[in-house]
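step 4 of 6: structure.
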Amino acid sequence: MSSKIHILKSDIANKIAAGEVVQRPASAVKELVENSLDAGAASISVLIKDAGKILIQVIDDGEGMSSEDALLAFRRHATSKIETAEDLENIRTLGFRGEALASMGAVAQVEMKTRTAREDVGTQVRVEGDEIREHGPVACERGTVLNVKNLFFNTPARRNFLKSQQTERKNVTDVITRMALAYPEVAWNYVSDDEIILNLRPKTVEDRIKDVIGMKQFGQLLPVDEKTDFLSLRGFIGRPDFVRRNRIDQYLYLNRRYIVNRAINHAVYQAYEHLLIKGTFPFFILNLTVDPRTVDINVHPSKMEVKFGNESQVYRFVLSVIKRTLSQHDLVPMVTVEGGIGAAGSNSRLRFEGSPGQREGVWSGESMGIPGQSDVEELFRASRSAAGGNIVSRFSPIFQPPAERIIQQEREGAPAVEGPGEGRAIWQIHNKYILSQVKTGLMIVDQHVAHERILYEKVLASFENNLPSSQQLLFPQTVVLPPNDYMLVQDLLPHLETLGFVLKPFGKNTVVIDGIPADVRVGNERKILEDVLDEFRNNEHQTTIDARDNLAKSFACKAAIKAGDKLKTHEMISLIDQLFLTSMPYVCPHGRPVVVKISIDELDRRFGRT
Ligand code: ADP
Ligand code: MG
């Protein structure tokens, strides 16, 4: 009886493999360029025609291949990079599966010319639909030239599945950009349909980043460089105001291999928590170096997925390094972009215009209007001098009457205060925004979110050092709560106390409020407690948020002065003083902008003065 099972012929097997290794022109480019890098090339040139559908040409000056190797290279599972099972555990090259050339040979017309340094004459190989059509000597430079023509010519389904010209070309550009960033010591040349997209000399990492993403953008990055015995993380991360509406500008590498890894991305986002405006993403270029024996990159044929031996260790390392980097730098925004105000709602605030190679390409940011650092300092100085040249305690309540503040300041050894607000241009408009003149223009502060940021940090600090600041109520309030609120109060009691509430659960859903946080206006105690509990429950479904952080946010949101609250001058000054003592004055804990600026240039422009 004949068996029903047979081994697939190599052309079919290779076609199947090609489905995973070479899914589109960009993946062919990736494989070819990886081969060039593995061959030690100092210079790589990529040329594509018709987004790579008609031609992908990769030329390198790497080690090349002998005549025999040139033929073997097109066999499936043929590789010079690993030999034993142990080698598979210790991969130090970009390739290792021995599938790429075989796959391309199965789904395209491939021509290769290659020569090693030892030989005077090179070798030419032509493969089409998995068949060797030509193999012989040829005169060529040292290194390798690969032409991949008419990709998917014999797999129409795959060819039809390709996206638009523009999309496929962009994918290729992304691949080359990622490689060029990771290999700054290599010269790169990239041409698409006769248009030079990249032409990069060998450079330092810093200069390469400047060349690829732009000089101006480079100024928005913070360097990251830390290592332990097992791990190192190097690269650059964007300041929190250098944000993106999408995740495209996130370059993550493992041992210089571009990878996609949700856990590490999450660690980075986590480090930026509360620093980013909602719906925006940080920019980063990070290379994680680990012992190859501790990771498995053989998860998928595309080699972009990896499995870490100890993922949680890597996660914690990345989180703490990025957090530290962010905290070491003064993160007051530097960007002063012209345009309208109200960035949060506008779509695509920052967008790259021009291809990466064009130095003229700019990230155009509309609607940023976030103040520059010097403005913030100026505003801060101005508000201090208006308040008598002393720094108010970071945590003094906004609503303390001026007299009390003076006493407190004198106790703290500060000079006595002249009338707050004197010599100071500060206004409240619509009982909602605070306006102030700064050297380069006009600063506008949203009073509610500003106060929210202040209270949030204050609460976090009191959680940290367990020092509640509360005010005793003259007349304790007895409140009957709905049963679920009552239970929540019992659960959160220690935290509520650290916050400044003095509460006695009395049974029967009754709570006596003896004291409230110092920042709450007396008379509001019951409402504040209920609002905070409500808000807490609203946020509870967000899994990433812990109870204390949730409480801090809920309290900050509910106890903060509202839009509509009229403020006195000294209250405005106190608010701004304290705002600029927070770690992140320009964005509220929910990610809304707190401060916007209209530059004098912008005003001049609008009034036709320029
Ligand atoms: P892998 O890279 O996984 O080994 P490939 O199919 O991509 O598999 O390549 C097969 C082999 O051909 C490589 O192991 C390498 O020895 C050789 N090779 C491919 N491209 C080049 C190149 N540009 N320069 C030198 N050798 C190359
Ligand atoms: Mg390869």
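step 5 of 6: annotate
 - Residues 31, 35-36, 39, 60, 62-65, 73, 78-81, 95-102, 144 surround adenosine-5'-diphosphate (ligand 1) (CB under 6 Å).
 - The chain has 19 helices and 26 strands.
step 6 of 6: archive
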